[in-house]
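Title: Prediction job returns without error message
Component: structure pipeline
Severity: low
Priority: P3
Assignee: unassigned

Description:
Job completed but the reporter wants confirmation the result is attached to the right record. Sequence as submitted:
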Amino acid sequence: MNGRFKRFGTCLVTPSGGNGGRGPAFAISKVQSDMFNRFLLERFGLSKFTIKQITVAGRLGDFIGSRVSSLKCSGGFYEYFNLLKSDKNEFQMLADFITCKETRFFRAPDQFRLFLNVLTKIKETDPFGKRLCIWSAGSSTGEEAYSIAMLLNSDADLKHWDVKIFATDVADRAVEFAKIGAYDDNSRKRIDDKEFLGVFDGSTIKTERGYEIRKEVRSLVDFSVHNLMDDIFVAPNIIFCRNVLIYFEPEKVRDVLKKFYSVLPHGGFLFTGHPEGSSKIFEGDPSLKGFEYVSGSGSFLWRKPF
């Protein structure tokens, strides 16, 4: 899942005694639980439903307890909570804990075929002056961004274009992993489309560790840590944000979509995943009134009109 949050249990931060009978848990009162859940909403955009999904099996209470112990927080939960709000490293530890790294190369092949169709139209009309900037928002460990880069690198028509991909994720460990550009053998085995499997083989080098992304492909992608709750620092022509917004509270979805609309040029595209489009997440959302729904088999594509 690109940008994606663990789906466990029934309640994210449970008050004391709510760990499903698995033994003593770090004691968190209902007031503290509510405080922490509000923080997850404000800083990660998580919906109440997502928050309820992450918890007991994820044992966030135990995670908090381990951080309180490791940091020697004599003030317990409140000292840790205040530190979490001000310390970047603690925030990143939480981000790494709650995000899921489930993704793969060329996930949902029909979506990448739709992207190739869009790319053909862009090359024909050149609305962006031979400049192509793509943002993979919620890129996790990099498979989506590298899949896009592989397709762009194999397109001879783009050799003289200014092409760049920005890939961001809230979890710094995922970003650091992606920068290395090395994946195990299972990464190839999970590609279920023969055409895209050929693209992958032509874009990687087989090594003892698995598969390494070729330098010319890796150079197309800039990875960095970014929280979708924060201001956007890129100016893309195309945004990929697939299987991310489905985890957000509706008000946060609207905030993100407004940001996307503001940074896209007229004629720019937004790809969302099938879960977002097939759910009620966009129904009646005034933020999408500016976007035109284009089409998509297994994908949902939106365009900012000229």
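Comment from assignee: result matches the submitted record. The CA atoms of residues 186 and 210 lie 8 Å apart.
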